């Protein structure tokens, strides 16, 4: 399989649509080679913050071209112009699509540098602005002899080295009024005694959990004896005499009353 090296120089652009209202927009171009699934290549120019709608880059880049894909007209060179923004993300200004077969057919002897200008197509589909670039192809080389171009630098293996050991400086000596605590042992912890084991589990008993307390001293007197059958030693009182307690009964009233005449009617 044979390859060619395509050298592209993104030169400038003119009359682009201005996406900034109060300041000059910074414009850059992302160039990608699509159509070859095994070698997707992409490169990016620097950001021109002074040109505004007519930026200038003069940025060279290289791509590896598969001759078989070029003959089948499968390779497309895409230029995507973008506005660099710190807030809100970058925005697309427009893009240009060029067939690599068309570039290869118009090189003539293939040694002279070719200059082209293409209209920029906005995301809305309208044309606004012109992109200027130059290109040329190198001689055909075999797959085993070709060198890796700059546009494929992202496919190179990266050697990862361990990070250097950072030695922190030791603190200054302590000169305070209180003594410093002792240094910890090599294990990093002080040998504290383990906590005591928890008491064994005892099931809960309903009712009184503890026995009632004993009575205080002084409450241990025996109960009083029962009273005797006849009382507490006193004889019962004698019955009253037949005529009372020594007083005669009152005499009956006289026949005529007590000397008072009856009341008149």
UniProtKB/TrEMBL annotation:
It comes from the Eukaryota. Pfam families: C2 (PF00168). InterPro entries: C2_dom (IPR000008), C2_domain_sf (IPR035892), C2_SRC2/BAP (IPR044750). One of its GO terms (biological process) is defense response. Residues 169-196 have a biased composition (Pro residues). PROSITE patterns: C2. Residues 162-196, 215-253 are annotated as: Disordered. Residues 1-115 form the C2 domain. Signal peptide: none annotated. PANTHER family: C2 DOMAIN-CONTAINING PROTEIN, INGRESSION PROTEIN FIC1. This is C2 domain-containing protein. It comes from Morella rubra.
């Amino acid at each position: 399989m044979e390859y060619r090296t395509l050298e592209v120089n993104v030169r400038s652009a003119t009359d682009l649509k201005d996406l900034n209202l109060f300041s000059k927009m910074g414009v850059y171009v992302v160039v990608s080679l699509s159509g070859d699934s095994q070698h997707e290549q992409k490169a990016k120019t620097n950001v021109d913050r002074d040109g505004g709608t007519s930026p200038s880059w003069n940025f060279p880049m290289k791509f590896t071209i598969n001759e078989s894909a070029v003959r089948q007209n499968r390779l497309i060179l895409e230029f995507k112009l973008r506005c660099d923004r710190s807030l809100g993300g970058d925005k697309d200004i427009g893009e240009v699509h060029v067939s690599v077969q068309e570039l290869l057919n118009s090189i003539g002897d293939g040694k002279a540098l070719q200059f082209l200008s293409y209209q920029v197509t906005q995301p809305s589909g309208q044309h606004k602005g012109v992109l200027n670039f130059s290109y040329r192809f190198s001689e055909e080389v075999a797959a085993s002899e070709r060198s890796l171009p700059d546009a494929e630098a992202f496919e190179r293996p990266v050697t990862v080295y361990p990070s250097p050991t950072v030695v922190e400086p030791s603190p200054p000596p302590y000169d305070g009024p209180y003594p410093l605590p002792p240094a910890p042992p090599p294990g990093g912890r002080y040998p504290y005694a383990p906590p005591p084991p928890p008491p064994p589990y005892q099931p809960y008993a309903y009712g009184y959990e503890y026995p009632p307390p004993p009575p205080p001293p002084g409450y241990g007197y025996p109960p009083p004896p029962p009273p005797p059958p006849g009382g507490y030693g006193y004889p019962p009182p004698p019955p009253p005499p037949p005529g009372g307690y020594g007083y005669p009964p009152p005499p009956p009233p006289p026949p005529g009353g007590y000397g008072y005449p009856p009341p008149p009617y």
